[in-house]
Amino acid sequence: MVSGCYAIITLSLFKGGIIMWQYLTSTLSYTDWNLIIKLITGLAPVIVAGFAFYKWYSNRDYKNDYYKKLIDRRLDAYQSLETLLAGLRNTVLDDKDPSKPYHFILSYKAALDNFTLLAIDVTSKSLWLSEEISDQMMLLNKIMYPLRNNIDDQLLINIAKEKYHEIANWREETEIIIADDLLSLHEIEAFLNNNKTKDRKPVPFKIK
């Protein structure tokens, strides 16, 4: 039933087209046809240019959406890094030696284990971080290595006191790099081109 209706409509449109063509050929003069042809010829470049613009505009939107996703991935990586740094902003002093501060995340083994998981999370997102930040993470790995042995809380605190200034300096340097990175976080093309030439070699641990 439906296909029959479609056939009838198609046939009607075809007949109507023929009637319209016959009417135009019988009423339009040579001058009229010449004018129509010139008009179509003049519009053709405009139509082509309009199509090219539409294609360019569509591709631009796709590219912008793609870049937005990459920026989101980079922001997520830097947010994880900020969470890591937040753990290094709390300092502890004890009664035994009040002249030697140490970081709270190094005051007991469970806190250190949690901090290590945060560091692993940041390292797993190094693809989205700048090369300078990736180098800083490798340096942190080197600094924290002696603290990952099976030691009790008191020995952990003693080592943390010795490494306090080294870790504090690392945090300050990292925060400066982050501030600089955030100024160019939107420059995705430059970031991708820089990623092609990265040569990140692991920092060897110096075990004492």
Give a description of the structure.
This protein has 208 residues and is mostly helical. Helix content is 73%, strand content 2%. The relative contact order is 0.09. Mean pLDDT is 77; it is low at 203-208.
Secondary-structure map:
Blueprint: H1 2-27, H2 30-86, E1 91-92, E2 102-103, H3 109-124, H4 131-144, H5 153-162, H6 164-183, H7 188-196
Antiparallel strand pairs: 1-2
Task: Please count the beta strands (DSSP E, at least 2 residues each).
Answer: 2
Range of strand content? under 5%
Q: What is the count of DSSP helices, taking H or I runs of 4+ residues? A: 7
Give the overall pLDDT as a whole number: 77
Question: Between the first and last Cα atoms, what is the distance in angstroms?
Answer: 89 Å
User: Helices and strands: which structural class?
Assistant: mainly alpha
Features of the shown structure:
single chain; mainly alpha; two-stranded antiparallel ribbon; 7 helices; 2 strands; rod-shaped; disordered C terminus
How is this structure best summarized?
By secondary structure, the protein is an all-alpha fold.
